Amino acid sequence: PGNITLFRLQGTVDYKLRSYIAQGEVLDINPKSFGGIGVFAVKEMARFYRHILIAKRFPHHTGIAFKHIGKILFETMKMLGINDIAFNQPSDLLYINENPFA
Q1: What is the DSSP string of 49-67?
Q2: Whose CA, among 3, 21, 45, 88, lies 20 to 30 Å from 55?
Q3: Structure pTM?
């Protein structure tokens, strides 16, 4: 168990760069499988998955840091001129096009 940061930087078909950053934690759960498998918890993951990973067509593979480095990654993306930086938003902050009545 411990802190993690999920991160991805990728190019789009129209030659733009976009990124996502989400902080969470490793859970002490046996996945009862084989290979490099772990179980992570990220706050508001279901909404993040739907409105960022699926809506922006991010693949399901991600980079993982085993500490909270979201602040550093976010500032690095800004320094590189990347403006499309998604993150897991709290429940009281809607994503673009998220239904406020859902």
Answers
A1: IIIIIITTT--S--EEESS
A2: 3
A3: 0.89
